[in-house]
Amino acid sequence: MNKFIDFIEEGFIALLLTAMTLVTFSQVVARYVFNSGAVWALELTTYLFAWLVMFGAAYCVKKGIHIGIDAFVNLFSVRTRQYITLVAISLCMLYCGILFKGSWDYVAKLKLIGIEAEDMPIEEWKIKIILPIGFALIFFRLIEVAWKVYKSEIETMHFINETKELLDELEINESENPPEDIKQ
């Protein structure tokens, strides 16, 4: 089931990126080849990007591929790292909760007012609903990561250690192809 959900999430993110690219490309061609263009294209691209960012952020939390600095945390024992990570996740969840509440109120007011997007004939709240949805998704993903930390499946929010992987790769490459000064 997880692979299917990953497939759906990755597919939707790819669809958003593809749509952004196609709209932008069509506008470049329209502007420079036909000396015309659509007024709504920039606004659509902006909203597609917002959707991409919100879904992408939740996906990055799920996969542990977000930006993080854990040099300080790595100084501690595994158990202490887990406690620090759980505190950090709790703070992230608090922050997501605050942003969810604010975005929910914002979208509710937009719905109440009933205004349309500036250049597209669609109510603005329908486009910006991604804000509370995105923060709810991120919150849910943080719960999943916290559970994995609690169950000792992982130690920190990062599932990969890029520095270690790069050093290991460098070591493998040097052992296969030693530098010239070592060969002599």
Q: What can be said about this structure in brief?
A:
Helices cover 74% and strands 0% of the residues. With 184 residues, the chain is mainly α.
Describe the structure.
The chain has 184 residues and is mainly alpha-helical. The chain has helices spanning 2-33, 41-63, 78-113, 124-128, 130-150, 162-176, 180-183. Helix 1 packs antiparallel against helix 2, helix 2 packs parallel to helix 5 and helix 3 runs antiparallel to helix 5 (130-150). The relative contact order is 0.11.
Indicate the topology.
Layout: H1 2-33, H2 41-63, H3 78-113, H4 124-128, H5 130-150, H6 162-176, H7 180-183
> Could you describe the largest sheet, including whether it forms a barrel?
none
Q: What is the helix/strand order?
A: HHHHHHH
* Beta-strand residue fraction: under 5%
The share of residues in helices is over 70%
How many helix segments? 7
**By helix and strand content, what is the structural category?**
mainly alpha
Number of strands: 0
* Mean of residue pLDDT values: 86
Shape summary: flat
Termini Cα gap: 55 Å
Overall domain count: 1
